[in-house]
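Action item from last week, closing it out:
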Amino acid sequence: MTDPPPRITNSEHTYSPDRLLGEMRYFVLNHFDQILREEPNLLVYVVHPWFNLVQCPFTHSVDFYRNYCRRVFHDLAHDSAALGSAVPRKAPGVSMTVAETVRKLGAIMFLEDRTVEPPEDYQPDRQLDAIRAWLFVNRNADSRNDVGGICDRLMDLAGQRGLRLTVERP
């Protein structure tokens, strides 16, 4: 008896960061229930190495984060849609506009946690070496003076702890 012929498997994958960003334009609004109306807000995303590598590999992550924040802070700052219609499951009936909500968001921080798959120069006694952080500040925020205070405190804390933190204003 002869072995059956080998099977051939074909697959195709395409990825467009711009398309993904367009589809995710209201994603930040899923955190509406965590936004304070009268205080500066900082939204933190923790990104693990096994999460979303196809869509956002660490090699290009900073560009993706920067473009995501630019779209949130600039494009949504002019969106007059009611929050209740943009994210009906999270904010049903809320009449506050998307633009008003985005202006309440002072900054977005991305933390890339590589402690599970650390870089080659990783030393266990310096775990923060395996974490990279980026803070993107919203220039259109209502509370931009207070956001500067948050940035200063985060930079001080990062320096004390040895965390590599990059601050940008897209």
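Closing note: The helical segments are 17-23, 61-75, 83-86, 98-103, 144-161.
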